[in-house]
Amino acid sequence: EDQVTQSPEALRLQEGESSSLNCSYTVSGLRGLFWYRQDPGKGPEFLFTLYSAGEEKEKERLKATLTKKESFLHITAPKPEDSATYLCAADNFNKFYFGSGTKLNVKP
Amino acid sequence: NAGVMQNPRHLVRRRGQEARLRCSPMKGHSHVYWYRQLPEEGLKFMVYLQKENIIDESGMPKERFSAEFPKEGPSILRIQQVVRGDSAAYFCASSNTGIDQPQHFGDGTRLSIL
Question: How far apart are CA A64 and CA A73, in angstroms?
Answer without folding.
Answer: 4
